[in-house]
Structures are given as structure tokens and as C-alpha cells.
């Protein structure tokens, strides 16, 4: 049972982490209102990946811990879960609300020049995405190297 859970855990990590890493890459390429609308619509459609993959990742990680109770005494394991909860909060709650606000700002825009209000809101989202990417990197490092 442990090996099957571990397999699902790794697959869900790939799904969730790939989406998390791609968010800033997709959004950094938008230079016009049309491009930004397309990029935000794409992110809205792919928002299920970090939510589904992340939830499955968290659940399988906890299940692995319940199969091997000693993991709950390992600081690297508990820290990984804490970092991943931060990632889930950002990508399940904060980023989607930012996407909706940015789309609303772009819908009100005439022309193809990105408005300052959009740029400010986008910077906030980029900052959150950076935090999530850093947390993802730390979480992966903790799970691979188990430093403490």
C-alpha cells in the first residue's frame, strides 16, 4: 500500500508543482490587454491543477505519515506539510481572487495598453507566486534531502 500511495504522491506533486511553476512564466509574457486577457483566462482554466494536485499531494502525504507514524516526529516532514499548506492557501484562495480582479480591470480597459491598476494588481500576484515557488522549492528540498 505504501508504494502505491508514494506513486500517487509523486504524480500529484508533478501536477501541482508544474502548475505552480508555470503561473509566473505565463503571466510574464503578457504585454498587451489582449495577451493579458488570454493569459488570465488560461490560468483560470488551469487553476484546477494546483488545487486538485495539491489537495491530493497533501492527502497522500498525510496518509503516508499515518502508515509510518514515525514521520510525524520528523521535523522535515512536518515542515514540508506546513510549507505546502502555505502554497495551497496562495493558489487556492489568493491567486484566483487576484485573477478575477485583474480580469475585471482589463474588461474596463479600452485600447491595448495595460492600465496602471492592472500592473499594480499583477505585481501583487507575482509576489505571491514568488512566495509559493520558494515554498515549493523548500518543500521539495526537505522531502528529498530530509535534512533534520
Automatic annotation (TrEMBL):
Sorted keywords for this record are: Membrane, Transmembrane, Transmembrane helix
Asked if the keyword Hydrolase belongs to this entry, the reply reads no
Concerning Pfam families, the annotation shows: DUF2269
| Residues annotated as transmembrane | 6-26, 47-69, 75-95, 126-145
> What is the protein's given name?
DUF2269 family protein
Species name: Paenibacillus marchantiophytorum
Amino acid at each position: 500500500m505504501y508504494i502505491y500511495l508514494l506513486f500517487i504522491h509523486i504524480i500529484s506533486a508533478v501536477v501541482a508543482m508544474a502548475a505552480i511553476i508555470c503561473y509566473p512564466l505565463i503571466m510574464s509574457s503578457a504585454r498587451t490587454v489582449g495577451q493579458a486577457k488570454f493569459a488570465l483566462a488560461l490560468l483560470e482554466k488551469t487553476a484546477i491543477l494546483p488545487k486538485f494536485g495539491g489537495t491530493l499531494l497533501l492527502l497522500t502525504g498525510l496518509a503516508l505519515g499515518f502508515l509510518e507514524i514515525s514521520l510525524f516526529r520528523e521535523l522535515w516532514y512536518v515542515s514540508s506539510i506546513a510549507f505546502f499548506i502555505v502554497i495551497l492557501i496562495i493558489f487556492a484562495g489568493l491567486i484566483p481572487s487576484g485573477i478575477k480582479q485583474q480580469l475585471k480591470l482589463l474588461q474596463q480597459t479600452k485600447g491595448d495598453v495595460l492600465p496602471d491598476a492592472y500592473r499594480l494588481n499583477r505585481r501583487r500576484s507575482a509576489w505571491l507566486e514568488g512566495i509559493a515557488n520558494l515554498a515549493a522549492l523548500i518543500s521539495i528540498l526537505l522531502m528529498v534531502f530530509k535534512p533534520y
